[in-house]
Design brief:
Elements lengths: L12 H5 L9 H10 L1 E5 L4 E3 L7 E7 L2 E6 L5 E7 L4 E2 L1 H5 L7 E4 L3 E7 H10 L1 H39 L8
Antiparallel strand pairs: 1-8, 2-7, 3-6, 3-8, 4-5, 4-7
Length: 174
């Protein structure tokens, strides 16, 4: 994060239970995660993640609102999504160890839980079942996002093709 932030109280089991990322985890696992994971209050206008940076952490939104931004080849930043309570982002940096694919900026004061690759490694060593459930939940969300992106690409291509076919032909037919 690019600006200082204040640490609010730790997340609570009940908060984590409402978030799909933690679906299926038992009370003990939720209590342990709630006590171990770092929670931050981030002011509006803060870049939590920057496109192109290397990182090994993801974030869970407990409250607030963020925008996801992508930069065009021409350097223009455009909003591609909005995130609110219960959302999470940054998991790709843990899964594929590539630079961040987008910038995520707060648009309101936001409370985030940070999960690092080291946190996941600790969970793996301590509680394999909870680790597998968490990774499965990440995988499900990545799959859902891929389906949405595929649908958008297909719709865009179909509209472009339809527009191309509807264009008047100015060819000299002899």
């Amino acid at each position: 994060m690019t600006e200082p932030h204040v640490s609010p109280p730790k997340a609570q089991r009940a908060q984590l239970r409402e978030i799909g990322l933690f679906g299926g985890l038992n009370d003990d696992a939720l209590d342990t995660l709630a006590s171990e994971l770092h929670t931050s209050l981030v002011t509006a206008g803060t870049d939590v993640a920057r496109e192109g940076e290397h990182a090994r952490e993801m974030f869970v939104v407990l409250s607030g609102e963020l925008e996801v931004l992508r930069r065009s080849k021409g350097g223009i930043e455009g909003r591609v999504a909005m995130l609110g309570a219960g959302s999470w982002f940054g998991e790709m940096s843990i899964v594929d160890v590539q630079p961040r694919s987008a910038t995520v900026r707060t648009v309101a004061p936001t409370v985030l839980v940070r999960i690092t690759a080291e946190d996941l490694d600790r969970l793996y060593r301590r509680d394999m079942k909870s680790y597998l459930l968490l990774v499965l939940n990440i995988t499900r969300e990545l799959s859902r996002r891929l389906r949405v992106a595929d649908g958008m690409i297909a719709s865009f291509l179909a509209a472009a093709w339809d527009a191309h076919l509807a264009m008047p032909r100015h060819l000299d037919e002899r």
